[in-house]
């Protein structure tokens, strides 16, 4: 039986430079399971997604990080892209928002370069995690145990490496967000 997220509210924290497929596919997965998804970002209006290094579509922002309250959400997804998490980790409101999910023990899904924001929030220490391979040293230096696996779940945190891992990532976050 497929996991249901009926009645759940899922935050997607992303900024300009988000890898489009890493935003769109997980959002479709949770919405198809019955959740309401909302895009949280750094500024009102819209964000510019990318397909690797090429501009793609824009997506409307539902709420800005300075006004978002993690208490109003059941789970969080941090898509990747190279620029996106770099913008997020530089924003105190975005970092506060991420940390609040961990402080509350809520489930979080992160893919590709997304863990940069987790490092800034100081929530990876002692965790087993995967990511885009270039983040290995950053995650290790932040106290995490980095592994090269398709999808890793450690407590409330589910992580994946890259777009090729999206089928496993989407299935796992849907499962863990439903629990």
What are the main properties of this structure?
Rossmann fold; single chain; alpha/beta; 179 residues; 7-stranded mixed β-sheet
Number of domains: 1
The largest β sheet comes out as: 7 strands, mixed
Named CATH architecture: 3-Layer(aba) Sandwich
CA-CA gap between termini: 13 Å
The percentage of residues in β strands lies in 25-35%
The top level CATH class name: Alpha Beta
Total count of strands: 12
Can you tell me the CATH topology? Rossmann fold
How are helices and strands ordered from N to C?
A: EEHEEEEEHHEHEHEEEH
CATH level-four homologous superfamily name: Class I glutamine amidotransferase (GATase) domain
Widest sheet: strand ordering: 6-3-1-7-8-12-11
Oligomeric state as shown:
single chain
Low-confidence stretches: none
- How many helical stretches? 6
Percentage of residues assigned to helices: 25-40%
Q: Based on CA inertia axes, which overall geometry fits?
A: globular
**Average pLDDT number:** 97
Evaluate the radius of gyration: 14 Å
Describe this structure in words.
- The chain is an alpha/beta fold and about 180 residues long.
- It has one domain: Rossmann fold.
- Helices cover about 30% and strands about 25% of the residues.
- The chain has 6 helices and 12 strands.
- It has helices spanning about 20-30, 85-90, 90-105, 115-120, 135-140, 165-179; strands spanning about 10-15, 20, 35-40, 45-50, 55-60, 65, 75-80, 110, 130, 145, 150-155, 155-160.
- A 7-stranded mixed beta sheet has the order 6-3-1-7-8-12-11, sandwiched between helices.
- Strand 11 and strand 12 (about 155-160) form a beta hairpin.
- Helix 1 (about 20-30) packs across helix 6 (about 165-179).
- The longest helix has 13 residues, at about 20-30.
- The protein is globular.
- The two termini are about 15 Å apart.
- The model has no long low-confidence stretch (mean pLDDT about 95).
- Its EC number is 3.2.-.-.
